Amino acid sequence: MAEKAIDDLMLENRKFPPSAAFKKTSLVTGTELYDEGNEDYQSFWARQASELVTWDKDWDTVCEWNLPYAKWFLGGQLNVSYNCLDRHVLAGRGDKVAFYWEGEPGESRVITYQQLLDEVSKFANSLKSLGVEKGDRVNIYLPMIPEAAVAMLACARIGAAHSVVFGGFSSQSLSDRINDAEAKVLITADGGYRRGEVFPLKPQADEAIATTPSIEKVVVVRRGNNPVDMKAGRDHWYHDLIDAASSDCPAEPMDSEQLLFLLYTSGTTGKPKGIMHTTGGYLTQVAFTHKYVFDLNPDKDIYWCTADVGWVTGHSYIVYGPLANGATSVMYEGVPNYPANDRFWSIIEKYKVSIFYTAPTAIRTFMKWGDQEPAKHDLSSLRLLGSVGEPINPEAWMWYHEHIGRGNCPIVDTWWQTETGGIMISPLPGATTLKPGSATFALPGIGMEVVDDECHHVEKGGGYLTLTQPWPAMLRGIWKDPERYQDAYWSRFEGRYFAGDGCKLDDDGYIWLLGRVDDVMNVSGHRISTTEVESALVSHPAVAEAAVVGANDATTGQAIMAYVILRTGFDVTESDLRNHVAKEIGAIAKPKAIFFTPDLPKTRSGKIMRRLLRDVAEGRNLGDTTTLADANVVSELQRRAAETPSED
Ligand code: PRX
Predict the structure, then answer these.
(1) How far is the CA of 434 from the centre of ligand 1 (A)?
(2) Which residues form the AMP-binding enzyme C-terminal domain (predicted)?
(3) Which of 151, 381, 507, 630 has the fewest CB atoms within 10 Å of its CB?
(4) Whole-prediction pTM value?
(5) How much of the chain, in percent, has pLDDT values that exceed 90?
């Protein structure tokens, strides 16, 4: 028998079936979609494409699959911005709210579908007047303001691909991404609000475009009112362009495989990859998943996804999915702790949010801030909660369920990636019995199999998450780098996509994500997932957040090192926590050392940087820390590591 890919240590038995009240209004309560997807995934997606998307021309071929390249709905033509805007207005829903936008300082803007269509049309005409043509690339470097969605949709309207770069990235990251994409136009802002202050964007953009020969024009949205230099002939104020533009800009039909956007993922090593997403398949899957995973009732729900448009979650579940489905969304500009730690809960109360989608890193931060913060607010409008970005520890799930959902809301834990474009593994909340911490099952129409090192099927226990058939929103490649595309995703297991994630299957076939396989530790020959040890630590009432890494160890190969953030008002000793882990998942998983810390090094999208923690644990000099959200955290950890003696 092959060696076990990853050990399966943690057992979680709590179950939450959908309530009768939730089922009563739910879109799916049985297995019919799964049955249909299993029978023939291509026909299943074809039905979704014709029901959820409006096509200018029907497709001839549902899917052409030349491994590792898929094309969907070939011969079909459509326009994404038409699907997100015009068709709702034409159906008489122009007055419906598309976005309630909340600025960090407290102002709000209400934007209807009609207003959004007008603004997008004007900006699409403006882009044309700046020389942007179908097939060009446009870079977007904006704060979380409605103009970010307008810019994306305007590009889609005229067939230019956008490449959004998160506003928190440095000028160097921006310049690298612009150069790789060879973008013609950059859309930015003077500045944006963050934690009560204006952070400058235009000065960063100016620095970036000093080294980007492809940029011909720059558009600047006024938001921060901070002083900026405008270069005559090159730089244009957004409001001047809009004032001068006509709102008549018919949406041009695009081929289904027209490039819709590039989005760069940093990964843990190497230069960022420009992930390519196209039009018809992408829109089909994001519309389908947004509708069914969030059980959307567009006439009643107020939906809020807290991601930034700079990440794929913002692309698929703030802009394209919700707008394609005619939903009403909240968009928030700032941080969760301005002016106080209850900002999110006050926004939910203010707009009567019914569907709330956020990340485990945020949930654990809320746990750290304490139960009293959500308790200050009426959260009774909520009916469904979502999680994305990392494995959600069972105790964080329980806290979310109890303190935000007040015990009444199902939680959809959605697994996917920038590369998958849309959600792949998730409960359907009216049909699936939930287990805290499990993303449950692959969605209908998705082919997923857990395999071991030799690519043999795993029925139960730990293994590697692979995708066995093409899906409509899958990446179409890495921009200008087909070899890397093949190597990064299709070479580890023949004929399949390997996502890089480890997972396990329990007795009931539920999927439990165990993090990136690069993070699996090898302790005395046991392959232990960092996620399981972290979840065991977080299940102690004193712990808000934990990060675990394997450090080289002369005796055991690797030794488990844990970094722990305590909840406000709690105290605990290192040995208490080590014993707690031993009790939860076994003595083998007991951390060799535990460091208490007020913070952890995270990427700007909130993922823990385990590579850096390994460097700290092994006393190495740190490599590249430029993608860190807060570089000071690491030096503080190094100082503490030098001071803290470790137990044996
Ligand atoms: O490791 C998985 C983790 O995030 C990775 C994808 O990151 P990114 O491309 O930045 O996209 C994040 C938003 C979709 C995955 O390979 N991940 C994402 N969602 C989950 C998750 N891990 C466990 N559970 C999830 N729900």
Answers:
(1) 19
(2) 532-607
(3) 507
(4) 0.91
(5) 82
